[in-house]
Amino acid sequence: GLGVAKLLGTTGMVALDPGFTNTASTTSEITYIDGEVGILRYRGYPIAELARSSTFTEVAYLLINGELPDAETFERFKRRIARHRLLHEDFRSFFTSFPSSGHPMAILQAGIAGLATYYEDTLNPHDPYERELATVLLLSKVPTMVSYIARRAIGLPLMYPDPRRGYVEDFLHMTFGMPYQSFDIDPSVIRALDMLLILHADHEQNCSTSTVRLVGSSDANMYASVAAGVGALSGPLHGGANEAVLRMLDRIQNDGMTTDEFVRKVKNKEDGVRLMGFGHRVYKSYDPRAALVKATAHDVLARLGSADGDRKLEIAMELEEVALNDEYFVSRNLYPNVDFYTGLIYQAMGFPTTMFTPLFALGRLPGWIAQYREMISDPAKRIGRPRQVYTGQIERHYVAMHRRE
Ligand code: ACO
């Protein structure tokens, strides 16, 4: 809750609001959420309409520029993003300098920050031309980077981007294609991933986005700010939840535990275990994204599913059923969030578990960029600098080592 405390030794009052439950950090025109009823809109457009009718690239344009593009503008935008997908050849050695077992989020964070060293003429956030170029380079190169990390982890040759392919199709081709072999991917899989990326594209002032804004408020360049966002997203209470859900389902399946038993453990807070993929700071009703993901999970698993995937989907649905009828979850307004069902889809598509959170990062990228640009262009912008309420020792004096008790 919101507490007000007087700072010791200074004049004036500061509000103490742990976790920023009630404190707005900014005004914004990008994303609207009403957590009580479960509404999410990007630039005024309901998420379900965008998920049904738009594409991830168009949504990226919308978030960043504020309006849907006309046909010619959209073609130009897509062409620019397609042209810049190649990574500098030196980046190959960058990837091999990490242990191949290293977590992809750590490599991704370093890689994005490292882009600043290759594109030094795109670092000034107050120059509209440089800002535009940094935007395009990030949108173009991050998918290539994510697929390189995935390939390197299992020792497959890296695949160059192909500008003739669409954004999501090319990402899948770089990740799952083979040199000199034709690439047959079910168009419904491309469409499903495209939709999942749309659902992740922005979510106003969440932990990673607030991080991007705070870092950028010092006029740090877009790569440094987005890389910091990747760090924030890696935590299991944020983007890392999609990976944690799969590990939880694995555990239930392998330990032969019933969903009732697992839910009991959660309610008793045994070993701090939580029902991963459940609960949200803002949504106090069903996350509108989770409903769309759940429907997609059924479709994708019906097409690509394995016996293992099907069993995990059953466990997930049982968990949801048990939780939604349990006083503990009902009284705390805990519903499935966007990440409860995504992992099952990613797994059916062939992504290893450690790639789930990088996929979230790929989706959130346009949101981070749009929010960074809104922050940097705001005439009222000041460096972010929260206050604190000091609770440590009052003044005391240094005691020589031999005199200490
Ligand atoms: N399982 C069990 N209990 C939970 C869960 C959960 N998933 N989430 C919240 N609770 C309980 C808490 O224990 C607390 O109960 P208490 O009052 O008895 O102590 C109460 O609900 C309130 O929880 P807070 O932690 O105060 O809620 P907060 O808004 O700070 O946290 C968060 C939100 C981090 C999402 C939380 O619900 C959580 O940890 N969920 C699991 C991780 C997860 O799925 N994260 C993804 C979030 S969505 C995203 O990043 C896309």
TrEMBL record:
The active site is at residues 280, 339. Belongs to the citrate synthase family. This is Citrate synthase. PROSITE patterns: CITRATE_SYNTHASE (PS00480). One of its GO terms (molecular function) is citrate synthase activity. It comes from the Bacteria. One of its GO terms (cellular component) is cytoplasm. One of its GO terms (biological process) is tricarboxylic acid cycle. Pfam families: Citrate_synt (PF00285). It catalyses: oxaloacetate + acetyl-CoA + H2O = citrate + CoA + H(+). The keyword Kinase does not apply. Pathway: Carbohydrate metabolism; tricarboxylic acid cycle; isocitrate from oxaloacetate: step 1/2. PANTHER family: CITRATE SYNTHASE. Keywords: Acyltransferase, Transferase, Tricarboxylic acid cycle.
